[in-house]
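Running log. JK asked me to keep both predictions on one page so they can be read side by side. First protein, sequence followed by its tokens:
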Amino acid sequence: MVFIKNGTIYTMAGEVIENGSILIKEGKIIEVGKDIIAPLDAEIIDAECRIVTPGFIDAHCHLGMWEEGIGFEGSDGNEMTDPVTPHMRAIDGINPMDISFREAYEGGVTTAVTGPGSANVIGGTFTAIKTYGSRIDNMIIKNPIAMKVAFGENPKRVYHGQNKTPMTRMATAAILRDTLFKAKTYLEKKENAEEASKMPDYDIKMEALIPVLKKEIPLKAHAHRADDIFTALRIAKEFDVNITLDHCTEGHLIVDELVKEEKPAIVGPTFGNRSKFELQNKSFDTPKVLTEAGIKVAITTDSPVIPLQHLPLCAGLAHNAGLSEIEAFKAITINPAEIVGLQDRIGSIEVGKDADIVIFDGHPLKDVDCKTYVTIINGEVVYRR
């Protein structure tokens, strides 16, 4: 057992608890509040004058898919030989031994939703993992958790370079429609086959898309520009599938329309330069504008674009741009958990949830020199400064 005492606890499930305590047993939170008595056999961590938060969550990154400090040998995020690769699985490309994992949990990030990049129209499946471990199979929270699709500049740039389709936004949309229609037909044939001989021949690409059609996982739509966001929504409606709007860079320009859609937004990466034309309107105002309109917002680093340990910095910059403190915290804790459907396990400090907890010496959103004191994942102290 682990007992945290005397902390200022941001539970993300109610009021901030001053001088609060948390009791952890067998990897789960079993008690939160004030005036809790520490069991005799518990490891005691004194959080006096420190801030305690749930472990931070990035709902869209590529942790472990592009390894630190190497080029081609560690680049496993984009299979740029075919614009349609739904059968690619992030779990087969992640290296949890990469230093970026240690830096992430030392920075307070305990969960990453990670997967393929945006070179392809359909890139493959994302997975949700804890950031501590040496074997990916033991780090998984849910797999698959989403199917990556991409709109805008990236697919057309990649395949223009190969002199093949898609070279336009029209082609990107057409390829996605065609593939989803084929997958729908494949699923119908499987469901209507009364005997084995009538079953369609096994197709690994179509099989990978069945969870999308059954609404077991959403499309995870890379879309920066307003017109690309609307194309993503249009296709999701046509095929009656769930979708999250990832990046949503121009979301603040079309907020009135997005409110009608009632879809969550995973915003970022906002820190850094405008490296391509479709990022010309990126702004730290976006989380505030969307949140105040009632849209559920998560903030992303898109790691390795921004190193994952700087997720709280990104939330802090959004706070500096007008997003309230509590909403900035929510954007890297409970909101991403709810957006990806893992709120029953992570995202807040509540009884029964995974004991993913971080203790900071300062305020992680406001203090540039704030340091992590302790990181706990699944009830285990994985970092202590």
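And the second, directly underneath as requested:
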Amino acid sequence: MEMTVLGNLDPTPLTAFFGQLQTTEVIVTDERIAHIKERHPEDLLLFEQYGREAVLSPDLIIRDGKHIGTVFAVKKLPDTNLNVVVRLVLETDEAGFKNSVMTFYRLRERNLKKLLEKNQLLYTRE
């Protein structure tokens, strides 16, 4: 499976909740890019432009209450919000995996509010 390394995330806002991560490296596989292209075709260009930045320096990190070890990395743009869903590799996970992008899509302000109401905010950029 082909993958692209996006870089290393800052584990500081995550370790308080999730404990140590096995790695700080974040990847996206070709299969996931194909998923974004198929399910959110209008957002693929935005992912290519802002995906890396959204993961590595998000404005908000929200815990996904439905999926273990998963967070929403949200990047605010003037006219919309971008949401990168990232599966983290926790200490309890099998060794050898990387933190990886599951999907990416735009998030309207009211949907971001809903996400914040239903899930725990782990980090917000000052």
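Observation for JK regarding the second prediction: The longest strand covers residues 99-107.
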